[in-house]
Write a structure and sequence with these properties.
The complex is a heterodimer. Chain A is an all-alpha fold. Helices cover 78% and strands 2% of the residues of chain A. In chain B, strands 6-9-10-3-11-12 form a 6-stranded mixed β-sheet, sandwiched between helices. In chain B, strands 18-21-22-15-23-24 form a 6-stranded mixed β-sheet, sandwiched between helices. Chain B has a 4-stranded antiparallel β-sheet with strand order 2-1-4-5, with helices on one face. The chains are: A mainly alpha, B alpha/beta.
Chain lengths: 329, 499
């Protein structure tokens, strides 16, 4: 009969899909290793322990922000406001500490609240007003980049409590604090995705929003949640950055969202939503970190770095789309 | 057959893997006649006309237009040979004017510029020819559906169509619009244009057509001269099949004291003034033609659409579900018609699909209790006999019947008391169908209540304890089990008054 033939074919495709998925799962780590081997051959300094720590510290901000971005992309959305959230958190936190005499902890908390608020605003535009995510978050990107300039007057803010440096520059034993923060964020991300009920909802909504609604998921609430979390993780990345640079630049986070999106997509999270693993996003983050660092060591110009990163993004998304196309035919 | 036909379909056969949609159907259209094509849902009417437009390529058979033979068509070939089709959904561009739509893809030009004036003049002529009053400058989006359809017809006439095929043209129209559409049809007929008129409204067919072709289950049944037949004969031909499929027996345990669901004057979402009661342990069948408002009624009860007036009473309490979540929490479930789009979550596992509505309940401080999760999934995988290697398998790798069982498992896990099945066996093979029927039986035997929406007459009659028939959003009748009769249902569904 018709359906049994169809199911047989499906069964076969299923096998093939699973094989492709498994290859893809491992492939990302193979790519990472290949890049590491390549750079260590090209530059003797690359594998030195001090450079490896530099890489880890550099990627920590991408890593932190990528957790929230991953949630958003899983539900089929996108968050272009990440860079501006990082900037505004830099400026606001610095402003509170330097100009308004806030303590370190309260300044950080207020700035993080602000980042959650921006995420909720994105959630409101996407879930309630039903604006396309790409436009809604693009609008908040512009607005909050502007706000950062207005607040800072276009000049850097510096002169923090020396203890503030610990967040971005400190060490626990030999491990840099930002790397610890990133690891905790990944652990939280993994916990949310694998253990909590709303983590399941992220995948369901990205896979089939209509069917999710009909299974009783309150889709808009979950969208508010993912954008708020995306804001929060971006805000945290902003705090780490502020502490690392020890001054708030009004352009601190410009263009950050694209690197973060590249990390997530490179990590195999489907741009259409519904599929992705955090372990692979970690690989995506490491690849971007290693690429950037390696190219700097090899004296590749900034412009050439942009070219390479752009191509990497195109390849990652292209691979995802090709797979979808194959699954359809 | 003589050569006096504009369009002939000869032995058209269309096979899909495992299913034959058309079994050697032949028919011919004479110049200047209105030929009606009728049949139940799924009789093959739409597939047949799609072979004329090229949307469906027949497995075998010939299409003969003015003596020229074709084994398959393309949209261009159809247009060149004077065949025009007006689908239920119009292809006009709402943002353009009536005149621009008339010349869409083929505008009158002066050099590289579009000559708006000339198009408006020509459009005015074309409309006048059909006796329709449309200002060529009006945007199509501002016109009523009836006028939009007129523009489609004018477009066909302008392209010198000899045969106009209309698929359920009256469905979206008001009764006065239907009248003016009829006038245009008769005008075209007097100008020598042939019309194939597809409709399930038998009164219209009787009024308008010259001859009537009846299809049933993809087979040609008969051609009748309209003036020599009547509605009863048409209905008999449309439904006159032997009831051969058997349905599993069940212990009827209807508790007529306990009304699970009651609708009082409910309107909205395309339904009007619905009154009905469902008793505990009952399978209430909802019959009717496609578009009668059955799915829409199901959505109202499930909270995925909202009523504008009336009362929904569930287990003695008035309810007003704003979204599916609220309905689910009350104990109402919906197994939707379109399994792929509205039912399964294809990418994720059987386990996650089954637990989806209750994840929050089986979580402690937001953390899923994975033991309960696995227990649930295993319970329903075993009791519903879901065929899958493991509960961790993606649902997309399961067959249609097993996907349907996963959705059912979801609602059983959510402890639903009233389950609305919308076309539960569509696209499912015979063996799996029988299993679904047995499941429905065991559900009502265990005290659940079921509303069954089905376009398959046999299934509806075989499975229901009682059938309510809808037409155009209203209830047109109710039949008890001993009154079940294909012709009676068809008569109610096509709103033919008892003579």
């Amino acid at each position: 009969m018709k359906s049994s033939i169809v199911s047989e074919v499906k069964e076969k495709n299923g096998m093939k899909d699973r094989v492709i998925y498994h290859i893809k799962d491992k492939a990302i780590w193979a790519v990472f290793l290949a890049i590491v081997v390549g750079f260590s051959l090209a530059s003797p300094r690359f594998l030195s322990s001090s450079n490896l720590f530099i890489i880890m510290r550099q990627v920590s901000m991408y890593g932190i922000a990528s957790v929230g971005m991953m949630f958003v992309i899983l539900t089929g959305g996108i968050d272009l406001s990440t860079g501006s959230v990082i900037t505004i958190v830099n400026v606001v936190c610095a402003h509170l500490m330097v100009k308004m005499g806030f303590g370190m902890v309260s300044a950080v908390l207020v700035s993080l609240l602000l980042s959650v608020f921006i995420g909720l605003l994105n959630g409101f535009m996407v879930a309630t007003i039903r604006m396309p995510a790409i436009i809604a978050t693009f609008a908040s990107q512009i607005v909050f980049a502007g706000c950062a300039y207005l607040l800072s007057g276009g000049v850097p803010i510096y002169g923090f409590d020396p203890r503030f440096k610990v967040i971005g520059q400190g060490y626990v034993k030999a491990v840099p604090v930002p790397v610890i923060i990133m690891s905790v964020c990944f652990a939280i991300g993994s916990f949310i995705l694998n253990k909590t009920y709303f983590g399941r909802y992220f995948y369901a909504i990205g896979g089939n929003e209509e069917a999710s609604k009909l299974s009783g998921i309150k889709v808009s609430s979950i969208k508010y949640l993912v954008y708020a979390l995306s804001g929060l993780f971006a805000g945290l990345a902003g705090i780490v950055m502020l502490s690392r640079t020890n001054s708030a630049q009004p352009t601190a986070g410009n263009g950050y969202e694209f690197d973060v999106i590249t990390c997530v997509v490179l990590g195999g999270v489907s741009v259409a939503g519904g599929y992705g693993k955090i372990s692979n996003v970690i690989a995506g983050v490491l690849i971007i970190g290693v690429l950037t660092n390696g190219m700097v060591l090899l004296n590749v110009s900034t412009y050439m770095q942009m070219v390479v990163k752009g191509i990497v993004l195109a390849l990652a998304v292209g691979f995802d789309c090709l797979q979808k196309k194959r699954a359809l035919t | 057959m003589g050569e006096n036909y504009v369009l002939q379909l000869k032995n058209i056969r269309k096979e899909y893997p495992g299913v034959t949609a058309l079994k050697d159907v032949s028919l011919g259209v004479k110049p200047g006649e209105i030929l009606a094509l009728i049949g139940e849902n799924g009789a093959g009417k739409s597939t047949l006309i799609k072979t004329c437009s090229g949307a469906v390529v027949p497995t075998s058979g010939k299409i003969v237009i003015n003596g020229k033979e074709f084994s398959s068509m393309t949209p261009q070939l159809a247009a060149e040979n004077g065949i025009a089709i007006i689908y239920q959904e119009f292809s006009s561009v709402r943002e353009l004017s009536a005149a621009e739509n008339l010349f869409l893809g083929n505008p009158i030009r002066r050099g590289i510029l579009v000559d708006k004036k000339a198009m408006e003049r020509e459009a005015e002529k074309a409309f006048a020819q059909l006796n329709i009053d449309i200002n060529p400058k009006t945007l199509v989006g501002d016109l009523t559906v009836g006028y939009q359809q007129m523009i489609e017809i004018a477009k066909a006439v302008k392209q010198d169509a000899q045969v106009l095929i209309m698929d359920e043209p009256s469905a979206p129209l008001t009764s006065s619009e239907v009248e003016s559409m009829f006038k245009v049809c008769q005008l075209l007929k007097s100008q020598g244009v042939s019309i194939i008129y597809i409709s399930h409204r038998l009164d219209e067919v009787m009024y308008l057509s010259d001859r009537i072709v009846v299809l049933r289950d993809g087979e040609y049944i008969d051609t009748l001269i309209t003036s020599e037949t009547n509605v009863d004969e048409l209905i008999r031909l449309m439904v006159g099949r032997d009831l051969k499929e058997s349905y599993p027996p069940r212990d009827v345990k209807i508790n007529s004291e306990e009304i699970v669901l009651e609708l009082q004057n409910v309107s909205g979402n395309g339904t009007e003034d619905i009154n009905l009661k469902v008793r505990k342990g009952e399978v209430l069948g909802l019959g009717g033609l496609v578009g009668a408002g059955r799915t829409e009624l199901g959505q109202l009860i499930f909270g995925s659409a909202h009523k504008t007036s009336g009362k929904i009473i569930f287990k003695g309490k008035e309810i007003n579900p704003k979204n599916p979540r609220q309905a689910i929490d009350l104990g109402i479930a919906l197994v939707p018609e379109d399994r792929k789009r509205h039912g399964i979550l294809a990418e994720i596992s059987v386990k996650n699909n089954i637990n989806m509505p209750i994840y929050k309940k089986i979580s402690r401080m937001s953390v899923i209790q994975s033991k309960k999760e696995v227990e649930n999934a295993t319970t329903y995988q075993e009791s519903l006999l879901i065929k899958t290697p493991t509960i961790h398998q993606s649902v997309k790798n399961l067959s249609g019947g097993n996907q349907q069982k996963v959705i059912l498992g979801r609602w059983l896990a959510a402890n639903s008391e009233l389950i609305i099945f919308d076309e539960p066996t569509r696209g499912i093979d015979v063996g799996a169908k029988f299993e679904i029927y047995k499941l429905i039986n065991s559900l009502v035997e265990s005290g659940k209540t079921i509303i069954l929406i089905s376009s398959e007459m046999e299934e509806l009659m075989g499975m229901s304890d009682r059938i309510i028939v809808l037409a155009e959003g209203r209830i047109t009748g109710e039949l008890q089990r001993d009154q079940f009769d294909q012709e009676a249902i068809m008569r109610l569904a096509s709103r033919v008054q008892e003579a």
